[in-house]
Amino acid sequence: MTDTTDARRARIEATIRADVRALSRYEVLDGKGFVKLDAMENPYSLPDELADEVGDALSRVPINRYPDGSGNRVKDTLRSAFDLPAHAGLLLGNGSDELIQIITSSIATREAGVLAPEPSFVMYRRNALMAQAPFTAVSLRADFSLDLDAMLRAIDRARPALVFIAYPNNPTGNLSGATDVERIIAAAPGLVVIDEAYHAYANASFASRVLDFPNVVVLRTVSKIGMAGLRLGYAVAHPDWIAHFERLRPPYNVGSLAQAALPVLLRHIDIFTKQAARIRKERARVAAALASLGALVFPSATNFLLVRVPDANASFAALLRGKILVKNLDGTHPLLANCLRITIGTRDENDALIAVLARDSMEARR
Ligand SMILES: *Cc1c(COP(=O)(O)O)cnc(C)c1O
């Protein structure tokens, strides 16, 4: 057998795009054995009866057949569960990640690219790169508030075809002012995507207003409210926008198991609504506890807290030793020095986190 190692390596070097070769993977840590407070998951599992009901529905899925390509049943369910405007169109995605990809590749070009504040959701920049379109980052202020003047200046200069605003923002957790977002919508020469992945934890949304603007798409997902495993995101916009995105949507992008499970789960939306309320209450309790330990806790309209500690690497390591996984953001952006992003867990999980950080901060003081 001939050894093809060198030939293969040379071929990969010559074939895979240089910008893709230079990328690092989106890191997903194996959380087995850890308290997972790193990925904005809802910490509660399904009540037994609901799990059985979902199981029944899944057992009837004709798995030999392709899924319903229209997703109409899922769309009707989403419309009623989330009170979406009757005349808006919906686009379903394999998570809102896929919708970001579909929208970006429908719009961005080498000449007219993508603009977003930073730090924000990393997939905006990554999808601009995939589309080989320029990406303009506009720095948030040091307190993570939106710098409206800088945004408007950058929009004027770069003339981006696509602007992303995470509303509320990840990884900072805060919600921008609606009037600032309106100014950006008015100034943008192309489309503005308002990413509402955390709508269940914020008392604000543009979903009911998408038809009031000529250039707005709202992105939603069920991931952050307790269904991250389904991989289901949806875009809400005027049907004329949706019709164009449909051209780039892979025909069977949402599997039949997810399509069968969602209507059953959303029939019990009250369970998820109550869980979100519990998470918001826990968020306030954890914020107060961490502040009393000396952490700087930033305001959050999400299911996570961004905190600045004296030594994020030391705290992260202490948490790992305590079998707790959070996201260490130190080094990912200059504004995020010594910052950790901590997803709100169950009461017991949060107590475990607070206990480790209490010990850790005492060690630091000694
Ligand atoms: C988590 C997240 C997403 C992705 O959600 P999925 O539907 O799970 O792909 C999109 N935008 C923001 C801001 C997020 O935090």
Q: Care to describe what's here?
A:
This protein is of the alpha/beta class and 366 residues long. The chain folds into two domains: 141 residues, Aspartate Aminotransferase, domain 1 (Alpha-Beta Complex), CATH 3.90.1150; 208 residues, Type I PLP-dependent aspartate aminotransferase-like (Major domain) (Aspartate Aminotransferase, domain 2), CATH 3.40.640. The chain is built from 13 helices and 13 strands. The strands form three sheets. Strands 2-8-7-6-5-3-4 form a seven-stranded mixed β-sheet, sandwiched between helices. Strands 9-10-13-12 form a four-stranded antiparallel β-sheet. Helix 4 packs parallel to helix 10. The site of pyridoxal-5'-phosphate (PLP) has 13 residues, from helix 5.
Topology:
Layout: H1 5-15, H2 18-21, E1 35-36, H3 48-59, H4 72-82, E2 89-93, H5 96-107, E3 114-118, H6 122-130, E4 135-139, H7 148-158, E5 162-166, H8 178-187, E6 191-195, E7 216-221, E8 233-237, H9 239-246, H10 256-267, H11 269-292, E9 296-297, E10 304-308, H12 312-321, E11 324-325, E12 327-328, E13 339-343, H13 347-365
Parallel strand pairs: 1-11, 3-4, 3-5, 5-6, 6-7
Antiparallel strand pairs: 2-8, 7-8, 9-10, 10-13, 12-13
Helix pairs in contact: 3-10, 4-10, 5-6, 7-8, 11-13, 12-13
The protein binds pyridoxal-5'-phosphate.
